[in-house]
Write a structure and sequence with these properties.
24% helix; elongated; alpha+beta; 16% strand
Length: 200
C-alpha cells in the first residue's frame, strides 16, 4: 500500500486497481484494498463495496481504540450507517491514525470517498466508523518471533505463510534455500531443525 502512495487515476475514474479487479471506471477505494491484499498473497473477499466487505468480515471487527498497523478501517461520511470509504492503517498515534487510502483526495477540501488518487491520510478515531483485522497469513515482530504454526506450512505449501516462515528461518540460520513462498525439502528440513532445537 505504501508503495502506491502518489498514484493518480486517469479520466473517468480509470485506474489500474479497477482494471485488475475487472470493473474499472467506478469508485475504487475497495478495489484498491482488494488489490493490496492480492499483492500480499491474501485470499481476500472480492467486492467493490465497502459495506459488503465489512459485513463479510464482521466477525473480525475491532474497536477504534484497539487499532493497529494493517487493520482495515471504514468511514461513514454521511452518517447513513453504510460504509462510504475504506483505508489501511499504517500507524497508530495518540491523537491520530495514519492511513493509506485509494480513491481519496490529498487534503480535506476534496472528496474523501471519490478523489483522484492514493494518499497517506491522517484521521482521528472519531472519523472511523468501523474496523476489521484481516487474518494475515503470518506476522513477524522485532522481538524475533514468527507466528506461523506448523499446521499452516507443509511440504508443497505455497503462499504468504511460507514466505514469512522462510524469511524468519533464514534470518535465524536454519534455512539455506531461496525465500520464494514455496515449501520444499529445505523448508521442511529447517522446520525440523527448529523443532529439534526447541525440543518439540
Amino acid at each position: 500500500a505504501a508503495g502506491q502512495v502518489g498514484y493518480k487515476e486517469g479520466r473517468n475514474n480509470s485506474n489500474k486497481y479497477g482494471a485488475a479487479y475487472g470493473m474499472n471506471n467506478v469508485s475504487w477505494c475497495m478495489e484498491f484494498i482488494w488489490w493490496c491484499m492480492k499483492q500480499a498473497g491474501m485470499d481476500w473477499y472480492k467486492t467493490a463495496s465497502c459495506t459488503a466487505c465489512y459485513k463479510h468480515y464482521a466477525s473480525r471487527a475491532v474497536s477504534r481504540d484497539a487499532l493497529r498497523k494493517g487493520d482495515i478501517v471504514f468511514f461513514d461520511w454521511d452518517h447513513s450507517g453504510d460504509c462510504d470509504h475504506v483505508g489501511i492503517v499504517e500507524s497508530v498515534g495518540s491523537s491520530r491514525i495514519t492511513t493509506i487510502e485509494g480513491n481519496t483526495s490529498s487534503g480535506n477540501a476534496g472528496s474523501q470517498s471519490n478523489g483522484d488518487g492514493v494518499y497517506r491520510r491522517y484521521r482521528t478515531r472519531s472519523q472511523i466508523a468501523k474496523a476489521i483485522r484481516p487474518a494475515y497469513d503470518a506476522e513477524t515482530s522485532g522481538a524475533g518471533t514468527c507466528n506461523v504454526t506448523v499446521q499452516e506450512v507443509k511440504n508443497g505449501s505455497k503462499g504468504g505463510s511460507v514466505y514469512v516462515l522462510q524469511a524468519f528461518l533464514k534470518a535465524k540460520g536454519y534455512y539455506t534455500g531461496k525465500v520464494d513462498g514455496e515449501a520444499g525439502s529445505l523448508t521442511e528440513k529447517a522446520i525440523k531443525a527448529v523443532q529439534k532445537a526447541m525440543g518439540l
